[in-house]
Design brief:
Elements: E1 3-9, E2 28-33, E3 36-39, E4 46-53, E5 60-69, E6 74-85, E7 96-103, H1 123-128
Antiparallel strand pairs: 1-2, 1-5, 3-4, 4-7, 5-6
Length: 129
């Protein structure tokens, strides 16, 4: 299983209840390659997937999040606290990091790879390095 993309959506205006039978988000607003995929250094049974949404994208609410494999199949779905993602044209654009945590019984046999050609870094990350 290769997890390659994360999508966010607005849930069609309401906070959706995730369903194991879902094959898509209720109302997807953005899908992009993962920025990071890593094992939580504080808890080795958690895998963290991360996407950075640039300041020039937005104008919608984030209420749902999903992870997709290389074939485009939805392999994990969840809801999240409602958050408005403004875009720069609205006068208050911001870079927003969205993370989804997957809990596994063991990460011993999991190999995590990320394509360095699609990684975005937040200003804070660059400044800290």
């Amino acid at each position: 299983l290769k997890i390659t993309h994360m999508a966010v959506g607005d849930g069609g205006g309401v906070l959706p209840t995730p369903d194991a039978k879902q094959t898509a988000l209720v109302n997807e607003k953005r899908r992009a390659a993962l920025n990071m995929l890593y094992i939580d250094p504080q808890n080795s049974s958690q895998i963290i997937a991360e996407q950075v949404i640039p300041e020039n994208e937005g104008g919608w609410w984030i209420r749902e999040v999903g992870l997709f494999d290389e074939s485009g199949a939805l392999i994990a779905v969840g809801n999240c606290p409602e958050s408005y993602k403004p875009q720069l044209a609205e006068g208050s654009g911001r870079t927003q990091t969205v993370r989804m945590v997957l809990i596994t019984s063991s990460t011993d046999n999991i190999t995590l790879k990320i394509d360095p050609a699609v990684v975005l870094a937040t200003r804070k990350y660059v400044d800290d390095k």
